[in-house]
Amino acid sequence: MLRYLKSLGCAVGFGLGATASLVSTSAQAVYNAIDAVPAATVLIPYFEVDLANTSGRSTLISVTNTSATAILVRATVWSNANLPVYSFPIYLTGYDVASFNMRDVINGVLPTSASAGQDPTDTLSRKGVFSQDINFASCSGVSPGTSTLPIAALAANTVADLRAALTGAAVPNGTLRGISAGQCVGMTQGDSVARGYITMDTVNSCLDATPADGAAVYFSDNTATRQNTLWGDYMIVDPSRNTVYGDLATMIEARSFSQSAVPGTYSFYGRFVNATDVDHREGLATLWVTQLDRDSTELQVWRDTRIALNPSSVGFTCGSAPSPQPMGMEGAGAFTFDSKPDGATVGTLFGTPIGSYPITNAATGMTSNGKLGQMYISLRTAIGGNADVEFADPTATQALVTSVRRPRGGATGLRSGAMAFPLNHVGTPGVINTTFPPFPPSTQ
Hints:
The chain is mostly beta strands. It has one domain. It is built from 5 helices and 20 strands. A 5-stranded antiparallel beta sheet has the order 4-3-7-1-10. It has a 5-stranded antiparallel beta sheet with strand order 15-14-17-11-20, with no helix packed on it. It starts with 7 loop residues before the first helix and ends in a 22-residue tail after the last strand. Residues 1-26 have low confidence and may be disordered.
């Protein structure tokens, strides 16, 4: 998964196609384990798009159908406050691949695809001799509350709202669901960079809904399906700096129909189904470890807020922070190369649910100057409040950590990105190691 790439030219030849070799056709899926196997949900844990510089940072994303069966996908764009912003369908014929640039999406140009009913001549979504191509009648736009394939370019006022929502600014027009004009849905970082994450779920219709619509609309096998056929990857590229790095997406498997939901189990979309487990998606981890070094590593962190949502009202007053931000944690700390501990004393180091965080002494509160070897991060935290969805473990808060590294003092164009290593799992809390090292001073 490590990709030491120097130029965008390398990215075009190496990234969104060559990673197919990373997925083995004989991979054995294990439910409630973070493994690289085809799944029903693909998580792109972080994206960036520099809106002030058309030659600056952007994120390239791909999603692949590993089966001969045609698949319908619902992609949802979320803000860095972990709130839904916009969603759209993608149709994949058997063994199909869809790739898109998040800069295009934010500028209102969405991936072009259509099922057989909307594309009878196979000019938009082509199929091979082994591939199925079927009609999803709901994608013809004849029913209220459904999307139409192929998707038309977004109107200028919607594009303006998207750009504001994903940079933490006030939405000017109120065209996005649940976000009124003048409200915010993301946290500002004081720049013009759009930030957030993407989920892509297998679904059975073009119903215009997101996971936040919950069990009655989206889950309980109503819209989201259990077709473990998808995998994906992503790259963050910056032509202006001649840099690129990427990784596999995180594949979130659905349980088989022979397995029953277990209420109280921490599932991936559990906050939207009131901890009933009927989203049928495995969760992630709370405790992570990664190799890194001071002043040359950024940690991209995805965190669940465990807060239930009303999808018709997700906007908040600009200048405030929606609950439970800033998020706390059990603690974080590193070991130097000679095994000496160095605890991070900034308790809100990863306080924004979705973000990229530089690992420096100033940012973390660590004090040593020795070369770092590995960092432990426990993102458990108590949420509390009436909107908190309580799982069997009240402080478990799932997360995902990706380490982005460059050579210390070396060529600035080199980057590598790789998911950190999980040391537990919220669905099976007693498995592997759940003990956080007692870094001095304590940050718990």
